[in-house]
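Lab notebook, bench 4. The sequencing result for the construct came back, and we need a structural model before the next group meeting so we can plan mutations. Quick request posted to the team channel:

Model the 3D structure of this chain.
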Amino acid sequence: AYNAVYGATNAGLDAHSGADNVHFHSNAVHVEGSDGTNDGIIYQGTNGRITENTIYGTIRQAIYYQSMAYSATDDRDYTVTITGNTINTDVCQRAVVVETDDSPGPGQTTAELSNVVIADNNCTNKVEFTESVIRVYANGASIRSITISGNTIRRSGDTASSHGIEVRALTGYVAHRISITGNTIWGEEGTLADGINLNGADANSIRYGAVTGNVIQTCDTGVNGTNTYWFIVSGNSVFGDVTADFSMGANDTVTANRT
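Done. Here's the predicted structure in token form:
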């Protein structure tokens, strides 16, 4: 805690796959370079906490959490906590990424994540984010509990892959028990693709969740769900230059939103 990392040319702070219960807290991280190929904080271990850091500079991903826990080792629950960080970059593809390892070694199976919390982060950019600003991706194992709340996202890009918040599941995996609430998503210049994008490769693979109390300005679609199941979308405010307010599945409920 309380370190200043200035001029890093790879990653400002990095914990590899053997790390467990490591806490990156109250650090200032500046990443140099003109091409945006370096990361601010990387965490590839288990049960990590990344809290109240300031990350700035020219960055690919400000916070990149790749869970490299494997089921063959034990039956533990694996958790992720990313809260209270300030991300104010010159160039950035994504602010916060959480995903599971999709290339485990021989005889290994990537363990499911049991609890992901991404909350109260301030994600701004001097230019547009080029991809989804906050992204949770079940690409090597399923993710069983996801809370994304109280984040501020400003100046997202207008490309097809640029969403404010994205929860995605690759073929064979699910993301479920999902709460996305109280976020402010502002497409200041141009439009976002989606304010909130929920995208499963398989039928009903994004399931059992609530999207409530979010404020979304200027996007193609406010909340867009593909292969979602048993969601409630309510109490959201979607305004500005918006093509479609909501697009969800037949088994979801969309009610009492302000558009």
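The mean pLDDT is 89.
Will bring this to the meeting.
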